[in-house]
Known about the structure:
Elements: H1 3-30, E1 32-36, E2 43-47, E3 54-59, E4 68-75, H2 87-90, H3 94-106, E5 110-119, E6 122-123, H4 124-138, E7 143-152, H5 154-159, E8 164-167, E9 172-174, H6 186-192, H7 216-241, H8 245-249, E10 257-259, H9 260-265, E11 271-272, H10 275-285, E12 292-297, H11 302-314, H12 324-327, E13 338-339
Parallel strand pairs: 4-5, 4-12, 5-7, 7-8, 7-9, 8-11
Antiparallel strand pairs: 1-2, 3-12, 6-13, 9-10
Helix pairs in contact: 1-11, 3-4
Amino acid sequence: MSNKSYGCLIVLLLLGLIVSLGLNVGLFMSKLDFDVNADTGLVTTAAKPKRKLHEVTVESSKKTTQDKIVHIDLEGVISSMSMSGLFAEAMPSVESIKNALEQAVGDKNVKAIVLRINSPGGEVTASDILYNAVKKASKEKPVVVYMDAMAASGGYYVSCGASKIVASETTLTASIGVIIETMNYSELFGKVGLSMNAFTSGAFKDSLSGARPMREDEKAYVQHLVMSMYDRFLGIVSEARGVPKDQLKSTVADGRVVTGREALAAKLVDQIGYVEDAYALARTLGKTTDATVVKYRHEVSFFEAFSMASAKAGAQPAKVQLDVSSSLMPKLLPGVPYYLPPSFAH
């Protein structure tokens, strides 16, 4: 290769390095805000304000009006795990649902919110955070929950923060209860000649350890935790639906799932219908005869898209594996409390 060719190659490599460096700096800068102190001249950084979500029309209004009904989807297992970029819309996290609710409440043209829930439930704390966010929003503007195929356990917990609840005839809901799972493999250890030593600061520090049989006092301790969380769940349902705790315990609050029609009979929901009925109810509660229904969508910035494309380009080809047994159900972490129906707990 001639000296001229070497020179061109070096120039191209340098240009590529400069472009890559510029894009990475831009990606970093896009996530920060800078504030310059007028007195000292010092530059400080702060978290960038939440990006406004983009609106997509779902159902247009017939008249010329600025009134809007915001449709928000809560889909899948409720988890504190955060997703970003292209995945934020497909797998909404607790934070993304909260952001959507806050934007809807802050928009003067939004007259009501429809929260569509299609979820078997999930983590206790994540469900409680979303319930509080929905309840807070409903104090500002009407929030109508539409239950799709399933709004059970944690999904129903979240629903209790709404102004009204609409369920389909075939919706599976309720499952008012709490579960903590663990696996015990101490007998297997004995058969293969393995053992585990744990050094703890207290008698309950290694509770739920699968390496040894569970003591009776540990069982009572864990059961107490479960019942404390169950009592909170029960209290929230009782307050939201105006049904005494004792009545709930003797009827539907034993962990069972019920259909939408059975939920209506038990006063767990307000109305049977479809999502269009939820829109109509939201318009009525929002005192608007004609409002456009919109959804929020997360717009991916150029730097996020480039970062994802670069990561994908540099990644090794992955094998595609189909696991039907686990792909349709959430994987429960040992010792973590969940609001989930029985079928999802195994």
